[in-house]
Amino acid sequence: MAEAYPIILQNKITTHNPIIVVGGGIAGVSCAESLSVQNIKLPILLVSGSPVVKRAVNIRNESGTVLNFDIEELSLGSLTTEINRVKVLYGIVTTLIAEHNAVTINNNFSIRYSKLCICTGATPQLIGDESTCVYGIRDTDSVELVQAKLRDSRRVVIVGNGGIALELVYKIKGTEVVWVIRDNAIGSVFLDKGAAQFMLSEMGNKETRNKDKKGFRYIQGSKGNLAYAPGGVHIRGSALGPDWTDELDIDDVLTGKNIRIEYNCEIKHIQLQETNNSMVEGYNREWPVHVLLTNSKIIECDMVVSATGVQPNVYPFSKDSHLKISTDGGIIIDEEMRTSLPNVYAAGDACTVNWTGSAIEDNFWFQMRLWTQALQMGNYAGKCIASHLNDEYILQDFCFELFTHSTKFFGHKVILLGNFHAAGLDKIDVEFLLRYGKGDEYIKIVLFQEKMVGAVLIGETGLEEMCENLILNQLNLTDLKDNILNPDIDMEGYFD
Ligand SMILES: Cc1cc2nc3c(=O)[nH]c(=O)nc-3n(C[C@H](O)[C@H](O)[C@H](O)COP(=O)(O)OP(=O)(O)OC[C@H]3O[C@@H](n4cnc5c(N)ncnc54)[C@H](O)[C@@H]3O)c2cc1C
Ligand SMILES: NC(=O)C1=CN([C@@H]2O[C@H](COP(=O)(O)OP(=O)(O)OC[C@H]3O[C@@H](n4cnc5c(N)ncnc54)[C@H](OP(=O)(O)O)[C@@H]3O)[C@@H](O)[C@H]2O)C=CC1
């Protein structure tokens, strides 16, 4: 292998082998930034396959651990002035030659590294391609393409039920949308059925049926939880077990918004008008694309947007058979961001964490491919690399103790904390506390064995700090849970 890829030391860059960071996304740039302030003498080289890089700026804490920041796009060249000590190279890493601690750039020349950090992100995992009128969204170019296509479209089919679909469905105006999801509620990657109902009732014109009392929702259960409405009206319900949302009925809420949701199905086949074989009799040639769903319906449309998740970019690194790849396609990393290859690290969407500790036990962090995690992982990878070079002990960063995500869906602020999905918990020991103010807020707190393990906070709830403290300190809430969401009691003040 070494013969096939002769190694040329890039003496122009350094007489020592640099630390090479591959990828100009948030993970790569934050890794380079983090390395630039560590106590290390080695040069730092950022290799990016794109001339435009992304950097997190104006980083601010919404509460102890909930982060928010803006994303700045800048030219690769300007990074050298923005980040001290970092050199840049516009090129694509085409081979990893781990036995020589080297990477090949553009199949042309190779550079040895002291340490390598792979931050190559992910690519949309699409159900088709442009030849079948299927489009995906990942970067600025793809957004522009989809926007342009949408402008000329009368009807679009959106498939997928995660972040992109949620944002797109909300934003599209003037084009009819048929949203195809394989679940029985929208936004299942981030939202439970109650939150989905909250979002839909915001968007649709139709009132939800006979479920609201004085502006708040009361859910029947069997354990005696409280559901509160803003303004202090409260009623005692009973247990909000994990299946409480099964009672909700959200069909057709979007009638009148030019959005139709096809639940519990997938796309089976896409047929273009040029094809002579029509799927069924009565094939309508007015529409260029005919989409056959697994529920046997046929949707006539102009285009399909596939918002169906991402696949980590691990090629060309995965050509090395010693690099362990997870079943989800990411490069497996340990607690100190190391891959299975010596001196090789990974961060951001490209990696898959293999850490012990889970939301079910005493750690409330889990991986999701998100901006915040790309930033935190890149930053921490820089610290890990420096500590290994200096032979120092490193404590895992605090940010990996609690999952936090701050975003906006359907125009509402959404904060997700800890095990907000109540994933993997024994149903018998789970309770939900709920506060629901129509159009205002939706709060769901997940208790497990009387302790808070997760929270969904939609709207301006002001509860993020209290919730994150209660999740982290695992206080027994048996005596407090009935009041924790009572808007008339200042629980934040109580815990101070
Ligand atoms: C449409 C959309 C909206 C999103 N919205 C949100 C949101 O609201 N909130 C949120 O938290 N997350 C959001 N995300 C997810 C978030 O964008 C990603 O999790 C994050 O940007 C990943 O950063 P990264 O640095 O790991 O990868 P990327 O940003 O994908 O960067 C990878 C970089 O590696 C480079 N590269 C790849 N291969 C090579 C190679 N072989 N050689 C050299 N360079 C290479 C690429 O050119 C690129 O510069 C969204 C994602 C999408 C697609
Ligand atoms: N505001 C935010 O936080 C945002 C975050 N993002 C992030 O960007 C990345 C890309 O977003 P997105 O593409 O929405 O990915 P997500 O991972 O968020 O969602 C993918 C969705 O597609 C579904 N899906 C996958 N394959 C198929 C298929 N063949 N047919 C039908 N449905 C399918 C999944 O269903 P199932 O769950 O059943 O597998 C899931 O609902 C993600 O990392 C996401 O977290 C994107 C936009 C906004």
Automatic annotation (TrEMBL):
Keywords: FAD, Flavoprotein. The keyword Flavoprotein applies. Residues 19-206, 252-378 form the FAD/NAD(P)-binding domain. Gene3D superfamilies: 3.30.390.30, FAD/NAD(P)-binding domain. One of its GO terms (molecular function) is oxidoreductase activity. Its cofactor is FAD. It comes from the Eukaryota. The keyword Flavoprotein applies. SUPFAM superfamilies: FAD/NAD(P)-binding domain (SSF51905). PANTHER family: PYRIDINE NUCLEOTIDE-DISULFIDE OXIDOREDUCTASE DOMAIN-CONTAINING, PYRIDINE NUCLEOTIDE-DISULFIDE OXIDOREDUCTASE DOMAIN-CONTAINING PROTEIN 1. Belongs to the class-I pyridine nucleotide-disulfide oxidoreductase family. PYROXD1 subfamily. This is Pyridine nucleotide-disulfide oxidoreductase domain-containing protein 1. It comes from Oopsacas minuta.
